Amino acid sequence: MKFIDEYRDPAAAQQFAAAIRRITTRPWTLMEVCGGQTHAIVRFGIDELLPDEIRLVHGPGCPVCVTSLELIDKALEIASRPEVIFCSFGDMLRVPGTKGDLFSVKSRGGDVRIVYSPLDAVKLARENPDKEVVFFAVGFETTAPANAMAVYQAERAGIRNFSILASHVLVPPAMEALLSSPDCQVQGFLAAGHVCAIMGYTEYEPIAAKYNVPIVVTGFEPLDILHGVYLCVKQLEEGRAEVENQYARAVTRDGNRPAQEIVSTVFRVVHRGWRGLGKIPSSGLGLTPPYAAYDAEAKFGVAGITAAEDGECISGQIMQGIKYPHECPAFGTRCTPEKPLGAPMVSSEGACAAYYRYRRVVV
Questions:
Q1: Residue 136, CB-side half-sphere exposure with 13 Å CA sphere
Q2: Kind and range of the H or E element at 281?
Q3: CA 104, CA 98: separation in Å to the nearest integer?
Q4: Dist. CA 108–CA 104, nearest whole Å
Q5: What Cα–Cα distance (Å) separates residue 129 from each residue in 122, 132, 158, 161, 288?
Q6: Which residue, of 11, 60, 236, 316, is most buried by count of CB atoms within 10 Å of its CB?
């Protein structure tokens, strides 16, 4: 397909790989912070093209995967109520909580529906005034504008039977949390291009300077990722730590200002718990006071629900780049897409799902 095939050209990929080999003189560990990039790396064997000195590890770049266990349990509680139509993107329905998942709620008679846009949920609320319609607002900065617009439109239209269970997370605080960890092995980052298309990349500049790590805003196709790796390794070899923009065809330094404005109108920065990583200060989005009536957590009184992580699932270590999915003892046996122990085996952007699909036999 035009505009995709040109970024998947095998000969060009080999040329990039050769260029990376030429400039590499010592071992480097790089982390991508995007589930789409993770799947591209594993699917196309990008890591296998690189010299042995370059190690790619997978970060917390899957929004479904980092949604905390307690938020899943809150979703299950809300979705089980007879007056509720619970709406979500499809990936979330198989994510396990402590007592099942949203599919199991649906099998017991809960009205759980897959939607393709938060505005679909607003429409359902308008069409079903006798029901409470709740949308599971999951995602990084990429999906925040659409979810903010859904709340904004509902408020303008006077639709009071609509609310969101907010599970938005922010990339820069997570990167700082990883870099601050004594177990951190990461020396350079490939930043998610779609996040930066919304937010720009000025937020990354202080991080690069503070922790002396190069950060390269990178696209999602094989040549994008190889180019991002090249730029990151080149900085490391030259002793530089800057923010570079590989994905200039979609990303500007300042990002999408109208999208940022609607997000800042509807949402405010809050502390957020991440599955496998714990609570990261100022790493999430919650509703601002003018839109507090659309907060499902408060509306349904589930704020007090807590949950402990499954001790067998090592997703936290995987999302910190400490281990790979196939290094988990449960991988492919006690943990499969049909019976997952954790979200990374479920989501279409999860690292475990990528390895299960593409690397089960040869790893």
A1: 31
A2: strand 278-287
A3: 12
A4: 6
A5: 11, 8, 12, 7, 24
A6: 60
Looking at the chain, list the stretches that DSSP marks H as alpha helix, in order from N- to C-terminal side.
10-23, 35-44, 46-49, 63-66, 69-79, 102-107, 118-127, 144-157, 171-180, 193-199, 204-211, 222-238, 257-266, 296-299, 315-319, 351-358
Task: Give dist(CA 305, CA 155) in Å, integer.
Answer: 27
In words, the CATH class of domain 66-170+257-299 is alpha beta
Q: Is the pLDDT of residue 317 over 70?
A: yes
Nearest alpha-carbon partner for 325 in 6, 15, 52, 58: 58
User: Looking at domain 5-63+180-245, which of 3.40.50.11750, 3.40.190.10, 3.40.50.2300, 3.40.50.150 is its CATH number?
Assistant: 3.40.50.11750
pLDDT, tens only, 171-229: 999 999 999 999 899 999 999 999 999 999 999 999 999 999 999 999 999 999 999 99
